[in-house]
Write a structure and sequence with these properties.
about 80 residues; alpha+beta; four-stranded mixed sheet; 4 strands; about 20% helix; about 30% strand; binds zinc ion
Length: about 80
């Protein structure tokens, strides 16, 4: 299966982080959620290229007033 990219967004921590779908923190957008409130943190994706994923990470970061980053574990 091709690698897909997902963006984890947290509006209370003001961050957006890009992950690969196979990352243990991501698991295709199913893992890592800290709350059950989708207005606080959520996943966006999948994106089929790193470029479009990163672009969406930056867009999401701007929306929550924070910084875009890349996961240190999966290094997208
Ligand atoms: Zn990751």
């Amino acid at each position: 299966m091709a690698t897909e990219y997902w963006v984890y967004v947290n509006s209370s921590l003001k961050k957006a982080q890009l992950h690969k779908s196979k990352c243990s923190a991501c698991r295709f957008g199913q893992a890592l959620k800290r709350t059950s409130d989708v207005s606080v943190d959520w996943w966006e994706g999948p994106f089929n290229s790193r470029d479009s994923g990163w672009e969406s990470t930056q867009t999401a970061a701007t929306r929550v007033g924070g910084m875009a980053s890349r996961c240190m574990m999966c290094r997208p």
